[in-house]
Write a structure and sequence with these properties.
The protein is α+β, with helices and mostly antiparallel strands and 182 residues long. It contains 7 helices and 5 strands; from the N terminus they run αααβαβαβαββα. Strands 1-5-4-3-2 form a 5-stranded antiparallel β-sheet.
């Protein structure tokens, strides 16, 4: 399965580059040139947008407590048909290790299995982006909420459309979490 997935990402130009690289080893250019070309071949092999420069979306709020932001965040997640799969209370873990004044920090993991199935059927590489995660951090004077966007520059337009749809849901969740208390 993995080999088949990797092969599907190799374009004919990339295959030629890999062959060209092996010709250089036998040719008179030498090992140094092959290393440079070989490195370029590896980079051209990677699927476009698979992990390259994923953007972070961040929102901040000053008039809500950490607990209120978490409550609104969890509400917004479940209202969009996601299931919370884990909560990592990193701040509490660090305080337990003896750093008494460490601020509150938590990562919430969540997933929609229907969306996950769709993503995996489009391209199994997308499993590296699952589950969705949102981090909440207390800076003292403000609370920040952040997540990473799914890449929208993939080689398959169907995956890009899927990513745009999920990214919009992530933006909505973050915006709801930092909305001021009425």
């Amino acid at each position: 399965m993995y080999r088949r997935s990797v092969r599907s990402h190799l374009t004919s130009a990339t295959r030629r580059s890999l062959v060209f690289g092996s010709v250089l080893v036998r040719g008179h250019w030498g090992l140094v040139h092959f290393s440079i070309v070989g490195a370029l071949c590896v980079f051209t092999w990677l699927p476009t947008g698979a992990h390259a420069g994923t953007e972070i979306i961040q929102r901040e709020v000053r008039d809500k407590t950490f607990a209120d932001v978490l409550f609104d965040l969890e509400f917004a997640i479940t209202q969009r048909n996601f299931r919370i799969t884990a909560r990592n209370d990193i701040g509490r873990g660090i305080r337990k290790r003896g750093v008494e004044d460490f601020p509150q920090a938590m990562v919430i993991h969540f997933c929609n299995l229907t969306d996950a199935q769709e993503a995996l059927e489009l391209d199994p590489v997308f499993i590296t982006h699952m589950p969705c995660r949102i981090a909440v951090y207390d800076h003292g004077d403000r609370i920040s909420v952040s997540t990473t966007r799914l890449p929208e520059d993939f080689h398959d337009p169907r995956v890009n459309a899927f990513s745009r749809r999920i990214n919009e849901k992530l933006r909505e969740i973050l915006d709801f979490a930092v909305e001021p208390v009425p």
